[in-house]
Write a structure and sequence with these properties.
This protein is of the alpha+beta class. Helices cover 34% and strands 34% of the residues.
Length: 277
């Protein structure tokens, strides 16, 4: 365009009529002005177009960033849910700890030893040797001077090996709230056979025991103090049992005796020098 203006300025005399030949440079100046304005308008248009492109790119980048941020949050949330689900599953699978006794299934696993062909039982709980809470003493029969009964012991939670033990028997002519009055020592006997295995949550009746008295009808309550030791089924983790229960002759019901009343039975046996202090 600049070249065209120069050529026009040089040929202005040939391009205009004679009456305009006196003002050729004025016309040239007007052309220059128009050309400059055209350049300015065109340059401004280019700047506006460039600015619009920049704004459009910024908005596009912002939309992409927001979209990526949302996607990242969704991925993080999904990963967290997956990890939480895995953690919950592992937690439920490994409930082999004693957080609520007797509410979680006892875990058992059999591991076979190929060298000696023995099977070891891995127990989720330790055994608890106890008198049967309902049938700890079972009345068989009575006559004028003798009471015949049996004692029943159980292995709760896991199998155990009963090593050895004794049962001390007492009687009382009282029942109910007064049953601990007028205690009479009736003797002791060995309980079960030594090293006797008891299955998990299974009970075993001991031998028939007798209490002799000149007038058995006067006896209202019979007490038993079971003592001894036992281990788990692998003959390890030896523990002691020292438990007291009583049998009501009239109702024919057995109950375990809780503290502090069971200690009165033990203290009576200690006072009588039957068991050591």
């Amino acid at each position: 365009m600049i070249v065209t203006l120069i050529v026009g300025a040089l040929q202005i005399d040939n391009l205009v009529s004679d009456k305009f030949k006196a003002k050729p440079w004025i016309i040239l100046c007007l052309l220059v002005v128009v050309t400059v304005i055209s350049f300015l308008i065109e340059g401004n248009g280019r700047r506006e177009a460039t600015k619009a492109k920049i704004l459009a790119k910024q908005e596009s980048d912002k939309r992409d960033h927001d979209r990526d941020s949302i996607a990242d949050e969704r991925i993080k949330k999904s990963n967290k849910e997956i990890l939480t689900g895995i953690g919950d599953a592992i937690g439920k699978y490994s409930l082999g700890y004693d957080s609520a006794k007797k509410e979680i299934t006892v875990l058992q696993q059999l591991i076979k030893d190929s060298s000696n062909r023995k099977t070891t039982i891995i127990e989720g709980y330790s055994p608890n040797l106890t008198l049967d809470g309902t049938y700890g003493l079972i009345l068989d029969s009575t006559n004028v001077d003798t009471i015949f009964f049996r004692m029943r012991v159980c292995s709760e939670n896991a199998p155990c090996i009963f090593k050895s033990g004794f049962a001390y028997f007492l009687s009382s002519t009282q029942a109910g709230n007064d049953m601990l009055n007028d205690l009479i020592y009736c003797g002791k006997t060995k309980v079960l056979a030594g090293n006797l295995g008891l299955a998990q949550n299974k009970c075993k009746d001991a031998n028939i025991y007798t209490i002799r008295d000149n007038d058995t009808k006067s006896i209202k309550t019979i007490f038993v103090n079971l003592t001894g030791s036992y281990t788990d089924s692998n003959d390890k983790d030896q523990k002691q049992v020292d438990q007291v229960g009583y049998f009501d002759i009239a109702t024919k019901k057995f109950r375990l005796l809780a503290a502090p009343y069971d200690d009165q039975i033990r203290q009576f046996l200690k006072n009588q020098k039957i068991i050591a202090n």
